[in-house]
Write a structure and sequence with these properties.
The complex is a heterodimer.
Chain A (H helix, E strand, L loop, with lengths): L1 E8 L5 H11 L3 E5 L1 H4 L2 H9 L6 E5 L1 H8 L11 E6 L2 H9 L6 E6 L7 E4 L2 E3 L1 H12 L3 E4 L8 E2 L2 H8 L3
Parallel strand pairs in A: 1-4, 1-5, 2-3, 2-4, 5-8
Antiparallel strand pairs in A: 6-7, 8-9
Helix pairs in contact in A: 4-5, 5-6, 6-7
Chain B lengths: L1 E7 L3 H13 L5 E5 L5 H13 L6 E6 L5 H10 L5 E4 L4 H10 L5 H15 L8
Parallel strand pairs in B: 1-2, 1-3, 3-4
The chains are: A alpha/beta, B alpha/beta.
Chain lengths: ~170, ~130
């Protein structure tokens, strides 16, 4: 398995993912790891429908995704180009902690909601988001804010996370 | 009565509705919303909130710009899986003009099909090489 993108995006599967990153990276399997969506058949169906027909899709709980992607011997994922999506930093952190072989995390979409503060332009976080991002960074993974291929890419530095943490 | 919501990326929907009203005059029951700056759940909540404000007997037609994107997901998730809400993608000016023209004249199911047909007819090569 080649993990071509591990992305945090609160819109989950949408145009930036399937058209933007999809055309650039040519995944043949998208894994959406989100408990709320996986446990709601209607939501799971809607998100699965938005994936192009040539791309396989698995809508799973975070625990299921960790088991699927954390097992290097799975024959059904051999030679697959996998795109991993979560809706929050916490879910990505759980996957990293469970041993999913993520090397870099793309921070793609974290929109404003009450209680969130702007970390960098267009990325809004609360305290739990920050702690999860920091935990991911402390595992040695690069955190890169980039909405679409060719768009501005900004590395999130630990000092940035700590600075905002004090204000939340 | 059938009510319309144009849900798009950026300002596409707002501008389309503005142009429809420039051509036909004010269209009560046709509203635009955007996904700009909103998470998937927030956009779905916009659709659900719009539906909650309609009369119980109203049908609803949500126009989206592109199938497979956040607006499509939000229209489906916010609209639920019942038969009160229809969702059509590829919104263009011809579709909205058809909606405004026939929404009081024909039954909702027929209107939805006519909107789609008019939208498709508007996408054509009108000159130059074919």
């Amino acid at each position: 398995m080649k993990l071509v993108l591990a992305r945090i995006d609160d819109r989950l599967i949408h145009g930036q993912v399937t058209v933007g990153w999809g055309h650039k990276l040519n995944p043949d399997h998208i894994v959406l790891a989100c408990d709320e969506v996986a446990l709601d058949p209607w939501q799971a169906r809607v998100y699965a429908m938005s994936v192009p027909p040539q791309v396989a899709v698995s809508v799973m709980t975070v625990a299921e995704a960790a088991r699927l992607l954390g097992d290097p011997d799975r024959a059904d994922l051999q030679d697959r180009r996998v795109m991993l999506l979560t809706g929050s930093p916490r879910d990505m952190q759980r996957l990293v902690a469970a041993g999913v072989p993520v090397r870099q995390v793309n921070v793609g979409g974290m929109h404003y909601a009450r209680g969130k503060r702007e970390l960098v332009p267009d990325i809004y976080v609360d305290r739990d988001d920050l702690l999860a991002l920091r935990s991911i960074g402390e595992c040695g993974l690069e955190l890169l804010v980039q909405a679409v291929p060719g768009g501005q890419a900004t590395a999130l530095e630990p000092a940035q996370l700590r600075a905002l943490e004090d204000r939340l | 009565m059938i009510q319309g919501l144009v849900l798009t990326h950026g300002g596409i929907g707002e501008e389309l509705v503005r142009v429809v009203e420039m051509i036909l005059g004010p269209i009560p029951g046709l509203k635009a919303e955007t996904n700009r700056g909103r998470s998937a759940k927030q956009v779905a909540d916009v659709v659900a909130g719009w539906l909650a404000g309609l009369a119980p007997a109203d049908r609803a037609l949500v126009f989206i710009d592109d199938y497979g994107g956040s607006c499509a997901n939000a229209a489906l998730l916010g609209g639920g899986d019942g038969d009160r809400v229809s969702v059509v993608s590829g919104v263009n000016l011809a579709m909205l003009l058809a909606f405004a023209t026939w929404r009081d004249e024909i039954p909702p199911a027929e209107l939805v099909q006519r909107v789609v047909d008019k939208g498709r007819q508007a996408v054509t090569v009108v000159g130059g090489a074919r």
